[in-house]
């Protein structure tokens, strides 16, 4: 027992110092109690890139209905960058096909964490591509590694998203709730829910929040990676190609949601209502490119994973979320 400090006995095992050292050697590179306790390396959804055939229509919709601010773009760029906070953009709308998903960007806390996360994923069978400085410059990040998810979406893990030198000023006075939860959530369809679950839960380290089944035997899975109730959700639609159904943006005022519903009545897809699982009070708009935007307030938080209990629901909404009545 010479040189062994009994006060440092691992709290997961009491099998002697040799067994303890063997246990520690098997842990993935970059492992730490802090990372394990905080669910993993992904901090949140940092940005999204989509395609649209009519950029001007998206510019009008994004500013006058959603309250997003137009970000700076170089003369050589034809991309519409939209801001929600101090970052140079959170949503990038590229010329392209309506409904197209260009990329999802997930934020990592540091360069060291990005390298450790890449090592961990390699052990789990995912090799990330370390992107060049030119690619990082286009995304306005300091470093990035990428892969593709089972639905064919480009997934980017980044560090150091560029901060704007100008303050964020919403054209409608909207204030977006981001903080430690990322920009919101994305809801997508898939062809194989088991592949989705394996990739995001088992490999990337998301955690299950709850499930909703509108049709028996076909559950929607809601996943989180921070205190936001869910950052990602998916349901299997066999026989149909995977698609991005909607993106959710959260604001801090019910009045902001109400004003948006009035201002965007021509694009309204679902009226104001409250979801059963995340308690979000929201309305839905059909964007000019076909992707829906959920716009809401008071989303539920998961601040203590140890105390959280996964639930199952058979309805998406407690009230509201109805199709708007046809106007005369």
TrEMBL record:
Residues of the signal peptide: none
CDD domains, per database record: BphC1-RGP6_N_like
Domain of life of the native organism: Bacteria
SUPFAM superfamilies associated with the record: Glyoxalase/Bleomycin resistance protein/Dihydroxybiphenyl dioxygenase (SSF54593)
Cross-referenced InterPro entries: Glyas_Bleomycin-R_OHBP_Dase (IPR029068), Glyas_Fos-R_dOase_dom (IPR004360), VOC_core (IPR037523)
Residues covered by the VOC domain: 44-160, 182-298
Protein name: Glyoxalase
Organism: Amycolatopsis pithecellobii
Source taxonomy: Bacteria, Bacillati, Actinomycetota, Actinomycetes, Pseudonocardiales
